[in-house]
Request: fold
Amino acid sequence: MEIQPNFNFTQFDIKLETETIGRNFLYFNEINSTNAVLLDKSSKHINGTVVFAEKQKSGKGRFNNSWESEKGQNLTFSILLNIDKNLKDKLNLLNLGTAQVLASTLESLFQLQVEVKWPNDILIKKKKAAGILVETVSVGSVIKKAVIGIGLNVNQTLFAGEYNYPPTSLRLELSQAIEREKVLAEFLNSFEELLWKIKNKPSLILQSWREKCDMIGEKICLNQNGKLKYGVFDDIDENGQLMLRTEEGIKIINYGDVRVVH
Ligand code: BTN
Reply:
């Protein structure tokens, strides 16, 4: 199949089956960060808006890391959600659920085995194929909007620089070029279903997430801003927080970077 140098909106739109998510679609050739566009307090984008960029000049990762992605090769985009009363206590579920839905989308499109790493990294054969950054907009102490930013390595084959986790892409794993439009549309279709599940069947999300996490039961090291904690990854609780079994008992963890130790 011939891969278009630029994102083909028509191809994407044919496959998009959502009611809200991605119906307002903003395409940028180059922008600082798709998350930043939606976080801008003066902007008035509607619920479900998707901002897509061929290139981000300052793509953001978790823990103030940058997110590097070669122009025109990958999927770097953000989704805007209004936070109503149904979603306000469920942002962790949104975080884990987004990872689970992305992993499932890749598995069903490409028959790949995809793993989630708490809370929301996507690994293929222990290498990082995608990252998710959820940021919020508050008025006073009330969260009004969430921006779910996703970077998925699709057709990039060379990754220069230093990475915490070795990177990979769909193309590297499948040895063929991948149509980005189809991946994005299928993901957004499932993401809209995720919103329904968060409100109506949250336990299903947690269960599907657990099934894709290979770290449960493993001895891990948790890094919280340079402070290390060791223990066993016991489980996730009903809010998606990590339950770390230590000598002092179970500790509930809501942020940090985890890795298996041997
Ligand atoms: C991570 O560190 O794993 C999260 C990476 C998130 C990157 C995406 S790319 C699209 C969106 N815009 C950003 O600036 N960051 C997110």
User: Anything to note?
Assistant: Residues 49 and 226 are 35 Å apart (CA to CA).
